[in-house]
DNA sequence: TCGAGTTGGTTGAACGCTCAACAAAATCGG
DNA sequence: CCGATTTTGTTGAGCGTTCAACCAACTCGA
């Protein structure tokens, strides 16, 4: 038997649309700022950040895809671009002959160091500053709940 | 004098990364579901929704761009695609010879009607169901605050 | 009324992402 | 040990978005 759709009520509609508007505007603004000031999209910035935090500034491609939340295909394309820019190089993995290590170059680290202050300032200005400390805390809990739930969906499939 | 960067502290980092992970996963999941089940990306779904709610199911291109939060260029390209699909048609505006009216076709309305239940179910499952009623309320306030703030930034430039 | 500036909309190139297909190496089960 | 399966990573085509450039029509002030 067909299941009746549980439509969104007026409050839920309002929440959903505000959420869409806010997240889209936020990410587009940060992306644009980063592109303008540092010549890289936000996704590439995140790759550089994760590499910069890793031991020896290097990670397996798969692990890097994992932590940046991207597909292997996406990361592969991105790595090719970042390699062209001289910000990253790839090297065969000694312990697994299928593997590739993504390694942040000095130029890549420098590009990240140049981009970071402006980007962090943007995150503050557009996300943290407008919210009260209590709201920041709420946002963290909400985000962690959603992220956990979505991760479960992935592993369950 | 150079201004010192106000870096994110550990809590802020955690919040920011959880937020990134959650919103990215949420939007990608919904986009994928919509693409799989209805053959359209989420952005196009939103265009159809807004048109379906407008008087006579039609809107000026500019107004449609406004409410869907997209650039005029983006909407122009999207409208071309939607027109190919037979879900939308464009017609000259009687009151402004520069203008174009975007009009939802019957086929477009039908496609929307077919896509909506599955999509709403996805929004429920991935967003509303995992959150408590209090959190949904918090998320609404947070989103509205951020959206207002970001809209101010736009108009101020 | 006429010129300058603004608004509405489109276009094409460049770019990033998705998806499916693929190849090579590792792992697992019998 | 060997065949089947899984994991790792890349590739190319197709699509959606951005950005800058552009034209046409509207508006407004002198």
Automatic annotation (TrEMBL), chains A, B:
InterPro entries: HTH_MarR-typ, MarR/SlyA-like, WH-like_DNA-bd_sf, WH_DNA-bd_sf
Residue intervals passing through the bilayer: none
Domain HTH marR-type as annotated: residue spans: 12-148
PROSITE patterns per UniProt: HTH_MARR_2
SUPFAM superfamilies: Winged helix' DNA-binding domain
Entry-linked PANTHER family: MARR FAMILY REGULATORY PROTEIN, TRANSCRIPTIONAL REGULATOR, MARR FAMILY
Descriptive protein name: MarR family transcriptional regulator
Organism for this UniProt entry: Micromonospora echinofusca
């Amino acid at each position: 038997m067909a299941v009746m759709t549980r439509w969104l009520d007026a409050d839920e509609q309002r929440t959903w649309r505000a959420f869409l508007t806010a997240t889209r505007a936020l990410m587009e603004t940060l992306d644009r700022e980063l592109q303008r000031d540092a010549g890289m999209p936000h996704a590439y910035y995140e790759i550089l950040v994760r590499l910069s935090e890793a031991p020896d500034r290097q990670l397996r491609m798969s692990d890097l895809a994992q932590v940046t939340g991207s597909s292997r295909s996406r990361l592969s394309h991105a790595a090719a671009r970042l390699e062209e820019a001289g910000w990253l190089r790839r090297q065969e993995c000694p312990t697994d002959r299928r593997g590739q290590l993504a390694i942040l170059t000095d130029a890549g680290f420098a590009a990240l160091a140049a981009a970071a202050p402006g980007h962090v300032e943007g995150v503050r200005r557009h996300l943290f500053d407008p919210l009260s400390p209590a709201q920041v805390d709420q946002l963290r809990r909400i985000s962690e709940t959603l992220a956990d739930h979505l991760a479960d969906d992935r592993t369950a499939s």
